TrEMBL record:
InterPro entries assigned to the protein according to its UniProt record, in alphabetical order: NAD(P)-bd_dom_sf, Sc_DH/Rdtase_CS, SDR_fam, SDR_oxidoreductase
One Pfam short name: adh_short
Similarity field: Belongs to the short-chain dehydrogenases/reductases (SDR) family.
Protein name from the UniProt record: Short-chain oxidoreductase
Any one GO molecular-function label of the UniProt entry: oxidoreductase activity
Protein keywords: NADP, Oxidoreductase
Domain of life the protein comes from: Eukaryota
Lineage: Eukaryota, Fungi, Dikarya, Ascomycota, Pezizomycotina
Organism per entry: Clohesyomyces aquaticus
């Protein structure tokens, strides 16, 4: 496969950093972006990446300007990886609207704005791939993760629409549903934890969730390097993906596989048990 140019968001640490490292290792061109000063991306630049300051919560015009500069200085983009995101941990009733909005600004609207900035270039050449980073939190909700799960569920719906709308234009889309991988996403510096006013009725649940976050950080079962290698294979049609069709969505990790299967089985059981009722709602002709 010819050399590809990848644009990746959220590269200051975690999965984004691994993406850039593995893209370069395959001989492709990597463009790393991150919020704030590009000094945080220095190690990736030293490895051969180009780096740009890009905040996915900025205005559409600002993001368009950065993408235009990237393309002017580096040529065409072949793959956009919408990786930037964080976890807003909070109980559904306690979390303030302001914190919900902040979570959506990054995890959903940031993806929308980045994709809208790149799509005109993909449409012009009738080619290109948009990669979404989904989550088990977009398949099944978990206590204390309401804001985060809401963004990931919303991303699933938006992705399905985008995929159908852009497929006739030669544009490919894929969403990877990630389980728990050993990155810094659950580090206390990254997880925004219970920032709203507490309701005493939820004290036990809140403490349980806080304890889960604490013990999970640094002990997640998933190896991010293995996940990224598979994602690169899928986009390029190489390795484990050779000879396979590009999937609409692909779960990665035994934990998310369990969540997805449970959801599918439960939905099928409801359809089967209630089919007569479900089919009874049409207007009588």
């Amino acid at each position: 496969m010819p050399q590809l140019t990848w644009l990746v968001t959220g590269c200051t640490s975690g999965l984004g950093e691994v993406f850039i490292q593995r893209i370069l290792a395959r001989g492709d061109k990597a463009i790393a972006t991150g919020k704030g000063n590009t000094n945080r991306l220095r190690a990736l630049v030293d490895a051969g990446a180009r780096a740009y300051s890009l905040d996915v919560t900025a205005s559409q015009s600002d993001i368009n300007g950065v993408v235009a500069k990237i393309m002017e200085e580096n040529g065409d983009i072949d793959v956009l990886v919408n990786n930037a995101g964080y976890i807003e941990a909070g109980l559904a009733e306690e979390t303030s609207i302001e914190n919900y909005l902040a979570q959506f600004e990054t995890n959903l609207f940031g993806v929308v704005k980045m994709t809208q900035a790149v799509l005109p270039h993909f449409r012009a050449k009738k080619a290109g791939t948009v990669v979404m980073i989904g989550s088990s939190g977009g398949i099944g909700g978990e206590p204390g993760a309401g804001p985060y799960c809401a963004t990931k569920f919303a991303l699933e719906g938006w992705y399905d629409c985008l995929r159908q709308e852009t497929a006739p234009l030669g544009i490919k889309n894929v969403i990877f549903e990630l389980g728990f991988f050993r990155t810094k996403i659950m580090h206390p510096d990254n997880v925004k934890t219970f920032r709203s006013e507490h309701i005493s009725d939820y004290d036990d649940m809140r403490n349980l969730v806080a304890g889960f976050v604490q013990i999970t950080n640094g002990s997640q079962p998933g190896d991010p390097k293995k996940a990224v290698e598979i994602m690169l294979d899928v986009v390029k049609g190489e390795g484990v993906a050779e000879g396979r069709e590009l999937p609409e969505r692909l779960p990665l990790g035994p934990d998310v596989l369990k969540t997805m299967r449970k959801r599918c089985v439960n939905n099928l059981a409801i359809c089967n048990e209630w089919e007569d009722v479900i089919r009874s709602t049409n207007v009588e002709e």
